[in-house]
What we know:
Elements: H1 2-36, H2 40-49, E1 51-52, E2 55-59, H3 65-73, H4 78-94, H5 98-122, H6 144-161, H7 167-190, H8 196-220
Antiparallel strand pairs: 1-2
Helix pairs in contact: 1-8, 3-7, 4-5, 5-6, 5-8, 6-7, 6-8, 7-8
Amino acid sequence: MGNSDTSRKGVRSLFLLAAASAGLFVFMATAGLVMSGSTLDLDQRVLLALRAADDLRQPVGPDWLLPAAREVTALGGTPLLTLLTLSLVGFFAVKGQGRTILILLAAVIGETILSGLLKDLFDRPRPSIVPHLVKASSNSFPSGHATSAAAIYLTLAVLIARDINERIVRNYVFFVAVTLALLVGASRVYLGVHYPTDVIGGLGFGAAWAAIVLIAARKLQ
């Protein structure tokens, strides 16, 4: 039993290290391309492809898709994620899981601070080629919503999955977390407030930050 537990922990540590490395690579590669300006034409083409040719205020797709995108994008917004975080802090406090609370807060507060610093560092303006379909402020790269969704939902997935023995259930938890992050990122592009590369960079950095926090927590345990 002891060897099995040790082997399982070793696999999880390697998985987290691989996730951190892959996420950072995606972020840094995307950032380099964005800074060179080589992605701007493709970014703009994607945004234009998502709008009606005769009216750029009108997104493509059925009538229900725009309100759905606005609802989905809220899943990566500060109000909902703050409420979710506070609710989970209370839940873990009742269960007496102080270490889990620290991991969650590190993921949330850290990504919020770092995302803001990165936005100021890259200083990329929001897309102006199409009208924004939701209110958006601050700079564009990396997408704050995509970063938050990846960092928080993936951290929660790990915290939830660690107490689940069935592999299929653990896989489902991670599938839901990844799907939510991708949907939030896609909604930002559909609503015209981010370039695709903003979202790719945000997802990469958010995933890397979640993995880094969890690696640090394991080292300090």
